[in-house]
## 1
Amino acid sequence: MTPAATRTTCPYCGVGCGVTARAGADGAIAIEGDPDHPANRGRLCSKGSALGETLASTSRLLRPRVGGKDTDWDTALSHVARGLSETCERHGPDAVAFYVSGQLLTEDYYVANKLLKGFVGTANIDTNSRLCMASSVAGHKRAFGSDTVPGCYEDLEQADLVVLVGSNFAWCHPVLFQRLQAARADRNTRIVVIDPRRTVTAESADFHLSLASGSDVALFNGLLAYLASNGAADSDYLDSYTSGCADTLETARPFNIEEVARITHLPPDQINAFYEAFLKTERVVTVYSQGVNQSSAGSHKVNAPLYGPYRTCRHGAFLDHRPAKCDGRS
Ligand code: SF4
């Protein structure tokens, strides 16, 4: 009889692929992509496919250790609980802090937060996710008023132009890249990669804009100015749902193609080709990744591609965003 499958999630990257795990009679775990999971529909990349091997690793910690010696769970948990209690009694709850992992699942975060905030009584809990995403949170809040990513994976499959900024999609989000490539085969999606590096993703793109490091904001200010001067603004939408648009356009206007070329070190005809493709394509999706988040002036760079939905924006781009303070170089 085939052993029952446990449905779970690959912890390695933010795509969040669903996997099924089946334990064999010999204890080995067989991993497959979950065909019903909306993120991957059965696909897995090489990292996810190898999950079963990590479970069999001899160097993996399989039981608790206290003072360098193996022990049982009850003893280890009592030891930790006693340490936490004594610290709280002696110094108060704010003497305790948890630094947890960005690889935790939502339910794990909930329990860890409940323990610290609801039981111990301190707000001292953070994760390494902040290092990855703090600039993104700030950018989204400035643009949309909330830290909510307005896109979904299906957008990638329904777009005709996908603009990847600071993202080596092929390596870092491989299953989404596979989905994009499959859609590309169906509908001829064009891909633009904006990245100083010639990555595997850049090699497979229709356009690679290898701009000077740190010049992304100038490129997107120029795009905004180009779209506005070519009549692509949805003025009804902008009047009804946004604020600060006139100031933003005023700031972007000096970024003509010559100025953008001077700052980005890109040839003017490449910039023009990108802007024209963006202007003439109805279904455009802009995706940025850690090359934007984890860089100098990351929040400004996060805001800059958010102009992308400008033309047909349903999501409130420009809300209270004033890039007037950006000089396009930082
Ligand atoms: S893309 Fe690969 S690493 Fe990322 S969640 Fe899916 S299987 Fe895991």
## 2
Amino acid sequence: MLDYEKLIDFVHRNLILTKIYKNEDMKNHTTFKTGGPADLMIKPGNISELQAVMKYIIKERTPYIVLGHGSNILVSDKGIREVVLKVEDNLNNIQVIGEKIVAEAGALLTDVSFQAQKHGLSGFEFACGIPGTIGGAVVMNAGAYGGEMKGVLEEVQVLTRDGEIRTRKVNELKLGYRTSIIQNNGDIVLKAALSLKKGDKNEIKKLMDELTIRREQNQPLEYPSAGSIFKRPEGYFTGKLIQDAKLSGYQIGGAQISTKHAGFIINKNNATTTDILNIIKHVQEEVKKIFNVDLETEVRFIGEK
Ligand SMILES: Cc1cc2nc3c(=O)[nH]c(=O)nc-3n(C[C@H](O)[C@H](O)[C@H](O)COP(=O)(O)OP(=O)(O)OC[C@H]3O[C@@H](n4cnc5c(N)ncnc54)[C@H](O)[C@@H]3O)c2cc1C
């Protein structure tokens, strides 16, 4: 185990708004509500304090991972040995400038989409029901109902793994289907600038309401999950493949393939991450065997293997 006491001391001495959590239960920081404890979680108070923490981390070569709302994450039951930088709550400022929205990485997509609607800005309706942060959405190129981050994103401000603040234009991010360069380059998203269009407030609201109803009707939102567990393989619908493999309702421990939407694994009853991983493996094997299709996970696994 790494010695975090020096880092804790550094934060206590130098940073006023940043909070530290030792041995923090990750069940409380993931929408799946599973996973073991993180040795150390840091919630930076603002961008300059995050930059200060990062400078320390770089100097001491401390391993770190970034967490947003934890809605596309599976945390190991053994927990996390790296420092978790939790970019939410404090870094959530949203600014509307003409037809542009500049949102800090921790702002929730729901809040940004409601701000867009309030200011009569169209183009971000697709994101109103995605339960993540702007930072997580950039990294995942989140999308739904025909829209995706790539379509509205102009540029992002990032903190690089060298501790520098940089602006990256959308075409530098290599946004693809649920991928971006940031998944591998160690950048931390600080802010995103979205380019939207003037629209009718009532029409925008109507569309957001319709999309919300569609989600409520089709997705098992009453249970903890991470949304679609697998990416959509080209030419197929994941949910239909899983259903056709007769795996709807398949259960291991407290985890189950949703009977409402087979593309979702739900935490039905005190599931562990191991239960969920075992279901993932079983589904991948069955779908390969029956349809010769490879299913790749969309959800990202973090923590001790
Ligand atoms: C019920 C439900 C429905 C969903 N529906 C959709 C949907 O329709 N479309 C869709 O695309 N997704 C959907 N998702 C998945 C998820 O909400 C999105 O992927 C979301 O964008 C993840 O954001 P997050 O803040 O939760 O990121 P996290 O899950 O916290 O992190 C995801 C990845 O981003 C990285 N990351 C997070 N923040 C930062 C940052 N500031 N800087 C650098 N890296 C960062 C993390 O290290 C991790 O690799 C759904 C999830 C649920 C639970």
## 3
Amino acid sequence: MIDLLLRGARVIDPANGVDRVADLGVDAGRIHSIGAEVKARRVIDLAGAIVAPGFIDMHVHCYEWVTNFGLPADAAGIHSGATTIVDQGSTGAWTLGGFKAFIADPAKTDVRAFTSINLAGALQGGMQGTTLHNPGMVDVPALLAIAAEHPRLVRGIKCHCESGSQSHWGIEVLLKAVEAGRAGDLPLYIHTGELFPVDEANRPQPNAVMAQIVPYLKPGDTLAHVYSCMPDGIMARHEEVPDWIFAAKEKGALFDLGHGINLAFDIARKMMAKGIYPDTLGSDVHADFGSYHDFSILNYSLLGGLNKLVALGMPLVEAIRALTATPARTLRDSSIGHLGVSARANITVLRDVPGSWTFTDTWKQELTVTSRLLPELVVMDGDPIIPDCMLLSDLMAPHERPRGITRSHDLPAGTRA
Ligand SMILES: [Zn+2]
């Protein structure tokens, strides 16, 4: 007799080449079996649903109250359909201890961090960029020491390649991150697109901001915001997909969706037409810059990103790979990202719900679909949880949230419909 049986769903596990209707058995917090005849203490009938390895969001901001744009970890994690979330750069060597004690350890969600190359982390979003992220705020030995002290939590380094930093100090800080990544054997996650205040006298030529990065990339480093509309972003203002992108892929670099506020559907279409798909589907979910604990303007999500990319033409199995197997490889954790026997029983369950829905991008371009993949259940270390979906405003109407939940565990009343 095992603990739990998820019965009759289409099981999609790209890491193991599985895509078939099967029963999935869970016992003692681990995957027990796929397709075996087993008796379970609890059976959940999921006929018509999709069962996938627990989704991994490579890009969230969840250092609530210390940064001015952090979300509650479980709201961004299990309650948004992700069983593992990776905070990108909210922490630095000075602030990681608090993140572990007050955010990562108490969360039900599996929370990891890419720690900022600067000592403090991104306390004030991009707004204090020149104060917080200047070369004087970098201490490579301190970063490597904290990463060595917390190897399960710190899985990489967050840094930036954008116009503001380059107008002030060139790529000096980026090169420090490259040095730290090589010395500590840690992957980099590199933000792209103007973020910090720009010294206009030294503004770099937008189409040239990114190409210079290629010589410094190592296999497994990630470039964020692949379909961003920012003038200095990955596609920038090039008419054709620039050669440096293919050179970066050739070197083993990965591209993250980094959905956020700058996603442009026409740039996505142009790049997909040349075979450039995101390797991972990070959401970049964060609260409003400038007022603590305000989620009212958040209008994109991990699962919204999944639905948008599938509608734009990314094959579903590849999109699920980008939410599971590939980010697990970046995190170098073989216990997550797949449904092989004895993997952690972290599972995301989706259901394709028919009905018209229109997504919009940064430029208010519309993308209308005839059905959506909505989260029905997550299983976290064997424990089934109905996600409250409070942060999925790009994907679901308030009345579509699971019945019985009127407000999230910790969202203040009145900030959401
Ligand atoms: Zn971000």
## 4
Amino acid sequence: MRLKDKVSLITGAGSGIGQAVALRFASEGAIVVIADRNLEAAEKTQYLIEQTGGTGHAIAVDVTQEQQVVDAIATTIQQFGRLDVLHNNAGISILKPITETTEADWDLLFNINLKGVFFGCKHAIPPMVQQGGGVIINTASELAIVGQSLYTAYCATKGGVLAFTRALSVEWAAKGIRINAICPGPIQTPMLQAEFNLASNPTAEEVATIQSIPVGRLGAPDDIARVALFLASDDAVFVHGAAIVADGGRTTL
Ligand SMILES: NC(=O)c1ccc[n+]([C@@H]2O[C@H](COP(=O)([O-])OP(=O)(O)OC[C@H]3O[C@@H](n4cnc5c(N)ncnc54)[C@H](O)[C@@H]3O)[C@@H](O)[C@H]2O)c1
């Protein structure tokens, strides 16, 4: 077990990538606090963890609300004694040409995708330093590295996550905090399904996206969870400020 008794807090763990990370961490012995603004979804993840004999604890958190993030970290430490791994994973996408993107769209994207990461890191680092170290993982995107039509504002948030992660890792490496980012390619989750309308009627551009992945398939949420597991584990002991791309080779083209 690579995360035996490690206390982890994962945001956006009620669905998709976050849920897969929660299940994989639990299967490796971690205690998992499942934080999501959708409590029912978080409780579903808790149920799935408990079905396999793991320990999960669902809490409602909106990562855009600083006090809720503070409370989530405090609850984790009160209940389980420490916080070893924080995965800032909650995120949304809004697909629009920039000329149709409203200020409200922009603010919502940045508040969830980037400010939520800032709040998580800001409030997890002090207890991690106090306990002698910790690991932070931030979910960015391949779209922090390459561009895609209609995703301009989303790309800006994820580019921000990468720059923030790199700078923060430098700031805290000497204090024993390892901070890294994951850049997933297209992963089959409810978010992507909503974007692509995969089940019913994908557009030609959507079909082209899938065909553009060298491995010839979309990613599975657990493909990303395995990367998160590596970063959370001691195997990544010398990995700081990295952006690990997991995209089936798409950004190499
Ligand atoms: N699916 C992909 O193709 C893909 C690719 C690259 C990056 N990502 C990133 O991966 C992360 C997870 O995406 P996913 O595809 O699993 O999406 P998803 O929609 O399946 O899951 C996202 C979860 O985040 C939660 N959430 C949203 N806003 C929140 C908030 N303010 N506070 C707390 N929880 C909130 C939702 O309730 C949901 O449970 C996101 O950051 C996304 O940008 C996804």
